[in-house]
Amino acid sequence: MSGESRREWKTSERDQDATKGWQVGTVLLVTLLIFTAFVWVTWKQLQAREWHLNPEGPSEPPALEQPEINLVNTGPFPLDTRAYDEKNAQAEQLHGYGWVDRDAGVVRMPIEWGIERVVGGARRDGGSP
User: Fold this and answer.
1) pLDDT at 42
2) Which long-range contacts (CB under 8 A, 24 or more apart) does 10-17 make?
3) Statement: the pTM of the whole predicted model exceeds 0.70
């Protein structure tokens, strides 16, 4: 440790030409004022254009839920359930009992029961094989 030299660290002097906080604030304020003026002028131009295109002012919108021609605002469509009704009727015929021909004595039985009878070897007239 005896051979080490001691150094002093010095900070550099402040730059006299450094930007000051009030200069940055002034630039931001001027920019904000220019932006605000631009927005105000644009808003006034849009209002003047709107008045030029429609001098009577905004019109009353049509009543909702009223059917109109060639517009989207139509009345509600009724739900079409024909496909569900047909599917349910077919399922009832497959899984339920009913008469096919009452005079001939032909009945309709659930398909599961019919498959079991055919696989089990039952005869058509109801007797055993």
Assistant:
1) 98
2) none
3) no
